[in-house]
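Following up on my earlier thread - several people asked me to post the actual chain instead of describing it. Fair enough. Here it is, all 194 residues.
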Amino acid sequence: MRSAIQILRRGGVIAAPTETLIGLLADAHSKAAVEAVLAIKRRSGEETLGLIAPDLESVASLALPLEGKARELAERHWPGPLTLVLDAKPGLHPALIRDGAVAIRIPAASPALDLCRAFGGPLTATSANLRGGPSVASTEALDPAILQAVDGILEGKSPGGAPSTIARVRGDRIEVLREGAIAAEALTSGSSPR
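Reply from S.P.:
Thanks for posting it. Predicted structure:
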């Protein structure tokens, strides 16, 4: 874990299990680190990268304060596989923002959460695959190009299955952008996750 933190502090990229799939983790506040993730994924930067945070304080470093329905959802589903699309604070890398918003979650128990907490700040958390390639649930199944490009790997497996659910909250309206590990109905009805 210590070497992984040193890699992150130098602007490097780590492949690690999250509570859903294997992700590419890098310092969200480092332009060089975000650029490294984009290069590994062979993305142009037009697609936004999702983020994970160890706590609400780190979420506040990226997004405007959680209020109303957004706060309710965070309290009910974090830590867990719910990504909230929140109004972004200024100064973030453009690859982290779409339409003035940032996609962030506090993940459930996983090596990625442990690393995020030990690092003490938000990390990128995009799937560890090449653009258009399949997502993987085990570091052993990583594409050779990913293995060669990352600066470190936290070995392990994710449960696999569905990715995080992505939701945008505007006022009292919840818009589910991608249904994943948490059913859309659980967000809109106020019931517990699956």
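The first strand starts at residue 14 and ends at 17. That should answer part of your original question.
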